[in-house]
């Protein structure tokens, strides 16, 4: 499977991409823990089958010092004892917000209550936008067939400046 199109090599694609990156930058500048951001992005990317994004977020977690056991168990987080209650709430939100077509209720009241318990309003705003943005990024990657394996941690630092 070869990539279909490089969005960054196209003038309008790069222009839109920069604005997309600016939204993501605002999320990373929130008080939401960086590890939580990466865990949520990794889980949504796994669900959506985006090789590029899965590559990015596994490598970013590793570079940040996350142990391999936590990275490897993200796909089975419900059956793992290595995540905090707050991380579990964020991962549940990520799954339910990603699997909208699979869950007739969308995000459950139970999951929302757990998110409210562990995060303040600013962090919740960042989490909601994070789930939406990673799902959009996954769709971009899958549509144009961005392949995983070539990401180098930090390669996009400063892109949104």
TrEMBL record:
<dbReference type="InterPro" id="IPR029032">
    <property type="entry name" value="AhpD-like"/>
</dbReference>
<dbReference type="InterPro" id="IPR003779">
    <property type="entry name" value="CMD-like"/>
</dbReference>
<dbReference type="Pfam" id="PF02627">
    <property type="entry name" value="CMD"/>
</dbReference>
<dbReference type="InterPro" id="IPR004675">
    <property type="entry name" value="AhpD_core"/>
</dbReference>
<protein>
    <submittedName>
        <fullName>Carboxymuconolactone decarboxylase family protein</fullName>
    </submittedName>
</protein>
<feature type="domain" description="Carboxymuconolactone decarboxylase-like">
    <location>
        <begin position="18"/>
        <end position="96"/>
    </location>
</feature>
């Amino acid at each position: 499977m070869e990539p279909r199109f490089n969005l960054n090599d196209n003038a309008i694609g790069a222009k839109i991409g920069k604005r997309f990156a600016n939204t993501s930058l605002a999320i990373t500048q929130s008080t939401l823990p960086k590890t939580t951001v990466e865990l949520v992005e990794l889980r949504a990317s796994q669900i959506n089958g985006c090789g590029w994004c899965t590559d990015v977020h596994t490598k970013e977690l590793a570079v940040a010092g996350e142990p391999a056991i936590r990275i490897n168990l993200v796909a089975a987080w419900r059956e793992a004892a290595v995540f905090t209650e707050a991380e579990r709430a964020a991962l549940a939100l990520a799954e339910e917000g990603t699997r909208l077509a699979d869950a007739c209720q969308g995000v459950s009241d139970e999951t929302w209550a757990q998110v409210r318990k562990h995060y303040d309003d600013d962090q919740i705003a960042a989490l909601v936008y994070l789930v939406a943005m990673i799902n959009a990024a996954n769709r971009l990657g899958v549509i144009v067939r961005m392949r995983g394996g070539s990401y180098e941690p930090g390669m996009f630092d400063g892109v949104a400046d």
